[in-house]
Amino acid sequence: MAQTELYWDHHIPLPRLGPVQAKVAVAVVALLCFINSYDGEFVFDDSEAIVNNKDLKPTTPLSNIWRNDFWGSNLSSNSSHKSYRPLTVLTFRLNYLIAGGLHPVGFHVLNIILHAVISVLMIDMFAILIGGLDYDEKGWTVNHAPKTSLLAAIFFAAHPVHTESVAGVVGRADLLCALFFQLSFLTYCKAFNKGKESNTSIFQWVVVSLVLCAAAMLCKEQGITVLFLMFSQLSEILRTGLLKRLGLMSLGGLSMLYARWRIMGTGPPAFTEVDNPASFEEYMFIRIVNYNYYYCLNAWLLLCPWWLCFDWSMGCVPLIKSATDWRVVWLLLLWCVLIGLISQALCSPDSQRRRTLTFGLVLLVVPFLPACNIFFRVGFVVAERVLYLSSAGYCLLLAYSLGHCCYRWIKYKKLTCVMLLALLCMYVVRCALRSHQWRSEQSLFSNALSVCPLNAKVHYNVGKNLADRGNTTAAVKYYREAVRLHPNYVHAMNNLGNILKEQNELSEAEQLLSKAVAVQPDFAAAWMNLGIVQNSLRKFDAAEESYWNALRYRRKYPDCYYNLGRLYADQNKHVDALNAWRNATMLKPDHSLAWNNMVILLDNTGNLGQAELIGREALKLLPNDHTIMFSLANVLGKLQKYKESESFFLHALRIKPNAAGCHGNLAVLYHRWGKLELAKKHYELSLKLDPEAPGTRDNYNMLRRKLDQLKHSAP
After folding, report:
1. What is the pLDDT of residues 346-365, one digit of tens each?
2. Where exactly does CATH 1.25.40.10 map onto the chain?
3. Which terminal residue of the chain has fewer beta carbons within 10 Å of its beta carbon, N or C?
4. Burial 2-28 (b: 16+ CB within 10 A, else e)
5. Dihedral sign, Cα of residue 635, residue 641, residue 643, residue 644
6. Domain 455-555, architecture per CATH
7. What angle do CA 497, 501, 502 make, to 5 degrees?
8. pTM
9. Rounded distance, CA 533 to CA 528, Å?
């Protein structure tokens, strides 16, 4: 299995570093490339996988991470993506516990450290794959390709395609998978330490390797592909017990696949046409052509990682519909290159070249297999994160190519050195620029417009980011463009409808939301928003039907019950309104608006005793909610419980001192109570904060007249 030092290795224009120095150099490069993402925000998929994922919170049972998918949904749910990555979620939970909440710095720092560690371990992996497995007298691995393995590891550490996996927190799945992938492979190689192995120790090392493979798979599904890399190594190990090892590894791999199949619910996740349009094409020829074009795009991202985008779906990559499409040339070119490499790997008279090309191709292709649409449909067109492991194979092949060129063209050594330095500098600069773009959603989404201007999801995300920052006017423009590019984009229609509703453009909002639920009838949020618009248009029957449709598709929907209660209140159906709001608070005990509306409705209908009970019940759950304190204080004032009412008013004002309405109603309480000077003080504070406060000016004038009368009648 061992080889002599590669004939091209010493021609590579790198200094010959010791093992420790080489690893430090690679770690420094990895840190240099991505360090500026350490203080970034949670962006894009981080919102669902981390910010909104209840499995991260200490209050959620730890056992939930073994029952739920990566996004916190139950694996048995129809909406689950079936991405079972409990070990990755566990690290998110640890980040949450250590930081005491959702502070992104800790999440980002761990990602950067993981990438640096993986890059360092790549030296050992590349050394074995290129130069073979050999040990010295002390049992240490001998590196027969020190410069080639170092150069390949530096390429890996600095490759810009890794930015999504490192700078995006959800890329933790790819990082952990790669780490356990490496540990599994290196542990497997430990079993064959010449002169020290026995049947028992070999068996133990192989079992440990399989356990690490399972850990890789529990971080991300493609972790199981390390077994194929091990199988490819078996041909290099001409020792006894080969069949036993092969059988053990096969049994372990099949067991893992079966367990994963059972966990997934024996069925693949359901994706839509917008996620992967080629997979929904009727004709197999069109599907195959487009799949191969996707492979070309992935290859191009490895070769020229300049045009990078957080999402490549929804029209970003138009489908190839016929053989006359000029893009077919790229397919032919890709396969010509691959066939050429495979033929060299199989037929070259140079054994060192055969070995290097074979393992480079295996490491390039095999980790990519789960994402290639051959075995099952995937939920994306192109995803830079799935290239994290495959890029190691590319970096190995690139380092070999440069070393071979240096060997062949010795007289151009200086030129080769300059080109290598320029390539590494471009990688580092591109990584720094791209990781800076991943620091915030605003920069990430805006940059994507120049890469994928036809991608409706990019326009949608730019619009959503603008709306979240309060710039709804600009958001409308991007939402409209998203709907134009993809006329059935229900989420864009829903969000645009919501903004138009707030701008009182109710007719257009109703049209958009009606189309959204027609395209996707189980879109509960769109049904609820349609009901809100119809209620504003006083189409009460249609609004009620829309709300009940929303509840049919999402039974536990507290916001919908709240809005249904508002509809009933507008129709003076008080009992129905109270029941709807009570349902909202049962589903979401901290639903402040539902509690407050119950208190106000009971107050307005004269049910002061019941209003008091509801208000007190609400404050047990929401002890610092100033709106409920305000409403309860009004009720207690009407019940002539002046002292207690005053206490709640003052507590509410301590929480929100500039609430004009609260000052005004406290003034009314003092007015009734006979504390006229205090009433005067709070009337004036209320009018100072809001000169147009309804009724306050009249009450204040009435108080002043009364004070004047008392002043004149005094002896």
Report:
1. 988 888 888 889 999 999 99
2. 455-555
3. C
4. ebebbebbebbbbeeeeeeebbebbbe
5. negative
6. Alpha Horseshoe (1.25)
7. 125
8. 0.85
9. 9
